């Protein structure tokens, strides 16, 4: 049985470039295919953000990895956006994109897709520029600590959290997953919102040489984790069609949760 320590060691060989190639280019990010999974994720996030209920001063993306697609709608609703990741290689990858350095991943197609969903006729380059300006910091995170951002943010609590494919990908079992959710909940103001995307029934994924084990979650387990402290505002699931399966993970689907932290328990 795996442990938090063994998982952390395993992550040391995580390869951001390989991870991006496995998940954020076609077929998984094919904007001409209505069945493609990245467009599905972007639509879920955009719909929640269009509700008019989410917004405020600070948005924290818990465990950005080397990706920014997960904040493309939400960042517009906050004055400041903080990106985070456990690994220095991922924080460097994010900074490469933020500074528009050579070799940075091209998020243009995803940004263009979000502009189409939002329907304001805005050129995607304008959104890209705004996001780069809105991100104030890229900092370390460890969701297994009671203060996942250490002293970087304490004692401030924030208006919203985004997190995608994090908790199930770094927890050894379901109780640890639920505990990690509790830890990040501590960062959120009462009444604050969390937008969470996660894998369904995934036991492992690859990122170059790294083979990372994941807690295999059903829809029911995913929902149940929010029983303590949250009201679920929207829950959606996506079953990966044959055309979206790749040989670098065994995920069967993806979940989307929009949850609001209760004012008091
Ligand atoms: N958010 C990205 C996405 O949507 O594709 C990347 C998710 S990637 C599957 C999982 C991430 O978990 C990696 O970026 C890794 O650095 C991070 N991670 C590993 N251990 C962690 C920990 N203890 N606390 C927070 N994040 C951790």
TrEMBL record:
Pfam families: NNMT_PNMT_TEMT. InterPro entries: NNMT_TEMT_trans, SAM-dep_methyltransferase, SAM-dependent_MTases_sf. One of its GO terms (molecular function) is phenylethanolamine N-methyltransferase activity. GO terms for biological process: methylation. Keywords: Methyltransferase, S-adenosyl-L-methionine, Transferase. S-adenosyl-L-methionine binds at residues 19, 24, 69, 85, 90. Transmembrane segments: none annotated. SUPFAM superfamilies: S-adenosyl-L-methionine-dependent methyltransferases. It comes from the Eukaryota. One of its GO terms (cellular component) is cytosol. Belongs to the class I-like SAM-binding methyltransferase superfamily. NNMT/PNMT/TEMT family. PANTHER family: NNMT/PNMT/TEMT FAMILY MEMBER (PTHR10867), PHENYLETHANOLAMINE N-METHYLTRANSFERASE (PTHR10867:SF18). This is Phenylethanolamine N-methyltransferase. It comes from Leptobrachium leishanense.
């Amino acid at each position: 049985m795996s442990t938090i320590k063994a998982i952390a060691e395993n992550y040391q060989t995580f390869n951001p470039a390989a991870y991006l190639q496995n998940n954020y280019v076609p077929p998984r990010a094919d904007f001409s295919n209505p069945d493609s999974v990245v467009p599905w994720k972007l639509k879920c996030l955009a719909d929640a953000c269009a509700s008019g209920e989410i917004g405020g001063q600070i948005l924290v993306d818990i465990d950005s990895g080397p990706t920014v697609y997960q904040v493309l709608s939400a960042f517009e609703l906050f004055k400041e956006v903080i990106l985070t990741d456990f690994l220095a290689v991922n924080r460097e990858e994010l900074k490469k994109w933020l500074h528009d350095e050579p070799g940075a991943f091209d998020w243009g197609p995803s940004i263009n897709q979000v502009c189409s969903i939002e329907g304001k006729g805005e050129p995607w380059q304008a959104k890209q520029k705004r996001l780069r300006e809105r991100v104030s910091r890229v900092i370390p995170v460890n969701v297994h600590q009671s203060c996942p951002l250490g002293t970087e943010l304490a004692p401030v609590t924030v208006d919203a959290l985004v997190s995608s494919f994090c908790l199930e990908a770094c927890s050894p079992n379901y109780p640890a997953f639920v505990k990690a959710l509790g830890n990040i909940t501590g960062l959120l103001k009462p009444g604050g919102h969390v937008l969470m995307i996660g894998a369904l029934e995934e036991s492992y994924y690859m990122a170059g040489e790294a083979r990372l084990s994941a807690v295999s979650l059903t829809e029911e387990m995913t929902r149940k984790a929010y029983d303590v402290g949250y009201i679920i505002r929207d829950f959606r699931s996506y079953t990966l069609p044959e055309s979206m399966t790749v040989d670098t993970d065994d995920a069967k689907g993806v979940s989307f949760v929009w949850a609001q932290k209760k004012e008091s328990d």
